[in-house]
UniProtKB/TrEMBL annotation:
Family matches, as Pfam families: Rhodanese
Alphabetized PROSITE patterns for the sequence: RHODANESE_3
InterPro entries per UniProt: GlpE_sulfurtransferase, Rhodanese-like_dom, Rhodanese-like_dom_sf
UniProt-recorded name of the protein: Rhodanese domain-containing protein
Alphabetical list of Gene3D superfamilies matching this protein: Rhodanese-like domain
Domain Rhodanese: start-end pairs: 24-114
Length: 115
């Protein structure tokens, strides 16, 4: 697995540009691990919201397809880094983490959407 300058055990850390390219394939799932309030204020299009701080987080991710590639992101990268451990323990094998989170995504010039 290729890692840039950030190492997250169990996931490949990718740049916003790499994530944008990956998202053009229909097979990838995008998970936003921020709170519903943060998610509603702006998120990457087609992202699903699974609140990492919620007591139901581990139960919620069990409903996902374990073989499907997943990109995980939060606001800056802290929660997504922590959540990777939960995804791994739940049996997910193809994990990517958006380096710098939503802040870096927007800094790169990519759009977000809100409800």
């Amino acid at each position: 697995m290729g890692c840039k300058d950030t190492k997250v055990e169990g996931a490949e850390v990718i740049s916003p540009k790499e994530a944008h390219t990956l998202l053009k394939t229909n097979n990838i799932l995008l998970i936003d691990v921020r709170t519903p309030e943060e998610f509603d204020s702006g998120h990457i299009e087609n992202a699903k919201n699974f609140d990492f701080k919620s007591n139901a987080f581990n139960e919620a991710i069990q409903t996902l397809e374990k073989e499907q590639p997943i990109i995980v992101y939060c606001r800056s990268g802290k929660r997504s880094t922590k959540s990777i451990k939960n995804f791994r323990e739940a049996g997910f094998t193809k994990l990517y983490m958006l380096k710098g989170g939503l802040l870096k995504w927007e800094d790169t010039g990519y759009k977000t959407t809100s409800k």
